[in-house]
């Protein structure tokens, strides 16, 4: 299975960063394609999109100022299958991507993604005090995976901070 294509360009409002593609994403070539993943529902409920997008429309997020990438490229059944070496390589690649494209905000879709990226253990939800890449805001949100035990309303409330943050930056 091949890695899926990033959807990224310079000066995005938000670059969403996941752990890695699911097997379903690897099969379809689209981000957050697993039918149990709530990413597209969360974006709509949080006010980031006016409607619920389908994974096949993932590239259209660029038109809204949003991008998509992952810390690890290899599709797996779950994040537990990702090796330390893959995380180490992925975080360096991700730092270079962020420094090059300079999104206003990088939203890490899962606390574990940010922990791997930053090397920090104790990470709060939302806006982080110090960015890893200077000039870019780090924001930590819950994973959109259907395996996450948080209620959808609780998850959405955290993502709802993003449109407000974008508004203050413009």
From TrEMBL:
Its EC number is 3.2.2.28. Transmembrane segments: none annotated. The keyword Nucleus does not apply. GO terms for molecular function: hydrolase activity, acting on glycosyl bonds. Gene3D superfamilies: Uracil-DNA glycosylase-like domain. It is an enzyme of class 3 (hydrolase). It holds the Pfam family UDG. Residues 7-157 form the Uracil-DNA glycosylase-like domain. Keywords: DNA damage, DNA repair, Glycosidase, Hydrolase. It comes from the Bacteria. InterPro entries: MUG/TDG, Uracil-DNA_glycosylase-like, Uracil-DNA_glycosylase-like_sf. PANTHER family: G/T AND G/U MISMATCH-SPECIFIC DNA GLYCOSYLASE, G_T MISMATCH-SPECIFIC THYMINE DNA GLYCOSYLASE. This is G/U mismatch-specific DNA glycosylase. It comes from Bacillus lumedeiriae. The gene is mug.
């Amino acid at each position: 299975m091949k890695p899926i294509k990033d959807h990224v360009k310079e000066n995005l409002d938000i670059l969403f960063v996941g752990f890695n593609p699911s097997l379903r994403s690897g099969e379809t070539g689209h981000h957050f394609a697993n039918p149990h993943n709530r990413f597209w529902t969360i974006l709509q409920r949080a006010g980031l999109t006016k409607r619920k997008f389908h994974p096949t429309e993932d590239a259209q997020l660029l038109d809204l100022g949003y991008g998509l990438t992952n810390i690890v490229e290899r599709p797996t059944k779950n994040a537990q299958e990702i090796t330390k070496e893959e995380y180490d390589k992925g975080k360096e690649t991700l730092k270079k991507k962020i420094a090059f494209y300079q999104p206003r905000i990088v939203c890490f879709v899962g606390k574990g993604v940010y922990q791997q990226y930053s090397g920090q253990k104790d990470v709060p939800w939302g806006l982080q005090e110090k960015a890893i890449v200077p000039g870019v805001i780090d924001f930590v949100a819950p994973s959109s995976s259907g395996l996450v035990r948080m209620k959808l309303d609780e998850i959405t409330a955290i993502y709802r901070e993003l449109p407000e943050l974008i508004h203050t930056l413009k």
